[in-house]
Input
Amino acid sequence: MTFQWLHMRITEESERRKREASTLEKLPQAFEELSGAMKACVDAYTRTFGPETAQLQASGQRLWVIVREEQNGRWEQRSKVDVSVVAALPGFRIERSGEPLEIVVGMLPGEKLFYRDADQYLTMEELTRRILDKALFPKLGE
Output
């Protein structure tokens, strides 16, 4: 005896597993894309305000941005943003001054990546702004 509901659910689960495997396979590419975009942002910032003001560092599947400000003749860390790959999401976990943010990475038709914060899809511009804006410009409002 075959049950139609069971066949449908098996098909759905099989497709979900394929999408998940495909996304996990593309996660390193998504991380490289994000890393490149963040590097471009930090480079533009340091060209304007000086090389001591911000630094992007990477190690494995983790990167962080340290923002500094000169105080009494010394460069002091003002803020730090930590981005790491989390396969369980799949996506990225961003730590910014005690404000965690989880970004889900997924696949669109045509093998294109998408980035999502809760129920909102993000462009790379919106994603980098969410990650870096408060760290680089804490005295400016939203």
